[in-house]
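Reply to dn_fold:

You asked what the input looked like. This is it:
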Amino acid sequence: MKYIIIAGGGLVNKGAQAMTLISVCELKKIYPDHKILLLAWNTGAGERKRHEMYDLELLQVPPLKFSGAAANPLKKVFYSLRYGNAFTKADEIYRNTDLLIDVSGYALGSNWSEKVCNDYLDNIEHALAYGVPVCLMPQSFGPFDFEGEAGARIDERIRKLLPKVKLICAREEEGYNALKNSYGLNNIVLTKDMVLASKIHDYTPALKGKLEYSLPDIAENSMCVIPNVRVADSGVNNIESLYLAAINAGLEQGLKVYITYHSTQDMELCAKLKAEFAENGDVILLEHDHSCIEFNELVKQFRFVAASRFHAIVHALKNGVPCVALGWAVKYIDLMDIFGQSAYMFDLRNETAPEDIQAAVSAMNENHAAESQKIKAALPALQEVNVFDLTKEAL
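and this is what came back:
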């Protein structure tokens, strides 16, 4: 049996789910004789439960745990004795793997912790040690302003490992230029986001059986607020007031306002926002954990959304649904610019007042039909290139 490993994806949020499912569908089409594995060694119980509907096997082996086994016979003997079949199976898989693709949305840069960066690089280093070609699929990179001894070690690992990667797909010019300028790499291409560029509508190849949809009935003239608890990590201390401003603006426009999450990490925040309108029946909390496939259908029913999760915005725009975007990185800015939506883009790294969000929601409610047409007109040009075709050169 020959394998292809997907790393960096997982099923913890709907963006990761979408990238994983698209990858499975595309890889099965191009490499029908390979078995697709999802490297998900830190998967929790909830994620494993969500995995049950998907037709791919979890590879739950931390690469660092078996580091050095590829080339060191003594380590291989040690791991065999200590871990038995768990190591033997993992070693056999890697020795018969023809490709590892990483579908992280954003995991390498000095904005992230030492652990996040090193976990990312561990996956690459372990695969390369076994002679497995590695392709980094469309994602964000940088900045690379690493500090201290730990930062210097990460920087050195990047210099050592990334030149050996077959293909690096950067989805923003800023990340593309950062990789070029910091490390002089010549194995980089500038691409669009994988979910945005994908033409896949049938996810059957990635599913064990038929998906049973569980979608609520959405009232007409509705908007949806999709928060992101991680925005606060970027130093924004008034994020809840901004989401509340969006909700209030929608209510003032006579809209039904739904609140839902694109990542289970945001469930508590969603409940907290609804609690501010506990007695208001026009503010509805959607608590069901929809799959990314269901979410793609759900978002079509809204007039527009106000969102902070990157792939929630992608899902909306891909369906012609306009968005007021509350972002914290250049990926949001680039995405909204592609569709001519910069007027509705808020970079929360800059000072943003609740009144600004309210004004944007009001303007969007008035202009949503025209903005939707603008978005739909821009989409075909973004789907002309299938990035998975580029992986053929790696094998």
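The radius of gyration is 22 Å.
Hope that clears it up.
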